[in-house]
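quick one, 404 residues, struct below
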Amino acid sequence: MPTKTAGNAAPGRGWVLVLALAIGQLISWGTTFYTFPLVIDPMIAELGWARTTAYMAPAFGLIAQAICAPLAGFWMQRHGGRLSMTVGSLGVAVSILAWSAVGEPWQLMAAWVLMGVAQAFVLYEPAFTVVAQRKALDFRRSVGAITLLGGLAGTVFVPGTQLLVELLGWRQAVLCLAAINLAVPMILHALLVPSGNGGADSIEHAEAASADPPPTGLSPRIWLGLALWFTAGSAYLSGVTFHFVPLLAAEGIPPTTLAAIFAVVGPSQLLGRACLMALGSKATAFGAGLSTVSMLLVSSVMLWALPHSTPGLIAFGVVYGAGNGIMTIARGIAIAEVGGRARYAALTGILQTPAVLALALAPVIVSLLRDAGGADAAYAAFLTVTVLSVAGFAIALLPSRPLS
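---
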């Protein structure tokens, strides 16, 4: 009889698990990073802090997440996701609760460090690990479904949080976000995420006996390629997220144009993920990876070389959004394909460290470049990291492609 630790599940129950993980991602992302910019203005107005001081908190959180990512990966490799994701959701809720009560900068930093530690156990990579350890699930379709719903986090929580801030004030709004984490993701993870690691050993034996077994160990070339690909891609995402609007506003681009650009990024992101999800098992690491690095490279060239007209910037939003949407799925597929699902947790935990550090440091580096060389230096930096991302993809996956 199948057991939870064997990694088998009825198809219907498997998709209940996928839906639970997707809802958890929607809330975990929506109640933290997406809502911080909505809370920061009333928070610093009340507390009298500098904006730069407040923005240090998410950076410290990302650094904490990067440090803890390998620990999360190795834990889930041995023990699975139920306990770690349940406690992680509790940790996110406690950190948001602490955020609602801050009165000094160090308290905000401490709350976000705790949040970063907790997020290492609950965001996309842990959710993908749970799927990888359930061999009855279609990994590609499941990851696509999780990211498809998770991609709506901003759509749901940005207007929702804004309304809460206006009605209740920022502290009570943040309290509501903590309560949502306690009421939904923590309960879903506790009740629906299976205990155990899904029989990772049996999955590894099955993969080894298959017609196309994964390598028994990743070569230094593949490690270097994946790390460069993921890290450079994260740097581009973070740099654009924090500097795109200030760069264009300094050029005199009107707010209506900026709003139009952001209006197309979200749907384009979802469209890219939906297309990849529709391919199901036909989606390969090579195809998904080539799509995302190509789109992101083209988008950086558009920013660097083309006039910043309204049609051109909207076209950038479409290309950038689709490439960014596919990137999350492509990473998961690549790790599972070249390293095997049995070792997915440990591999993704290690590769997350440099990628998350890039998320934290890229905005600071781009700021320094802007101060030294102006907007052109920032656009050149965006182009450089997308070229590095293409190089990493090629190093990791091109040599494994057949020549004929």
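Residues 1-6 have pLDDT under 50 and may be disordered.
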